[in-house]
Amino acid sequence: MTALKFEDQKLPDLDDYAALAEQFIPGRRAIFAIVEAAFLELLSQRSARILVVGAGGGEEILRLGQHNPHWLFVGVDTYAPMVELARKRLAETPVGARSQVYVKPIDGLDEKDFDAATCILTAHFVPDDGAKLAFFEAIRARLKPGAPLAIVDGVGVAGEDQTELLRRIWKRHAVRNGVAEEVAESNAENFKKVAVVSEQRQEDLLTSAGFERLTPIFRGLAIKGWLAFA
Ligand SMILES: C[S@@+](CC[C@H](N)C(=O)[O-])C[C@H]1O[C@@H](n2cnc3c(N)ncnc32)[C@H](O)[C@@H]1O
Questions:
Q1: Cα-based distances in Å from 214 to 48, 156, 206
Q2: Which protein residue has the closest C-alpha to ligand 1 atom 19?
Q3: Which residues does ligand 1 sit against, CB inside 6 Å?
Q4: Nearest protein Cα to ligand 1, atom 10
Q5: Ligand 1 center to residue 180 CA distance, Å?
Q6: pLDDT band at 42 (very low <50, low <70, confident <90, very high)
Q7: What ranges do the domains of the chain cover?
Q8: pLDDT of residue 15
Q9: How far apart are CA 4 and CA 180, in angstroms?
Q10: How far away, in angstroms, is 4 Cα from ligand 1 center?
């Protein structure tokens, strides 16, 4: 199965990425606030090492790190320009001193024993041809037993009525937030081309990778978030 890669989308100037993501993604800020609250609840120790998969742009490190000076971050992302953007944004804040972001796939990361991980709007770029399962397995292998993964991803089956309706609402939501009509249309079209799977399939894959106690924490149109425990 071929799936659209992040970098093959018609991307705007990457310097505009953070602002555009806020306009497009329903509840974008709430996602980070919920993940932060979940980790505050679950990570009892003051200091924690957090793995960020798909860390390009730097948003989750910036948001989770801002008020949690004892959290350290290691990020991986496969697209160098997005890693550059993350490094640039992080260098402008104190969180930068507590974070490293690498251009590499998760299975190329030697560091292990993380206390928590995030994978936000990233797994839906990994094809469901064995690669997505291996991707989830590689994340789990780098977590301490029982540690939480916060995963947020597009869900749905292309062509189904509900998916199509949510896709059209997605486009209207973006336009209402000030995105140009043609940019919103092209972004909504991309939803058909990335490796989005159904909620059930996503849960089956996470479970097959060894994650337990899948706990829904977010839903905004076709974007769904879970906690899953290694
Ligand atoms: C939509 S962006 C989300 C970035 C960030 N998590 C956020 O919410 O702002 C998706 C990111 O996933 C990265 N990506 C795509 N496939 C990946 C993979 N197999 N491993 C790691 N990162 C990947 C892309 O390069 C891109 O930076």
A1: 22, 18, 8
A2: 126
A3: 6, 21, 53-54, 56-57, 59-60, 76-79, 82, 105-106, 120-122, 125-126
A4: 122
A5: 23
A6: very high
A7: 6-229
A8: 76
A9: 22
A10: 12
| Burial (0-12, 13-18, 19+ Cβ within 10 Å), 31 | buried
C-alpha 123/C-alpha 145 separation (Å) is: 21
Angle at 136 between CA 230 and CA 16, to 5 degrees: 115
Which of 50, 64, 125 has the most ligand 1 atoms within 8 A of CB, as the residue to mutate?
125
Q: pLDDT band at residue 16, thresholds of 50, 70 and 90?
A: confident
pLDDT in tens, 134-188: 999 999 999 999 999 999 999 999 889 999 999 999 999 999 999 999 999 988 8
In this prediction the pTM is 0.96
Class of 6-229 in CATH = alpha beta
pLDDT at 97 over 60: yes
Return the pLDDT at 135.
98
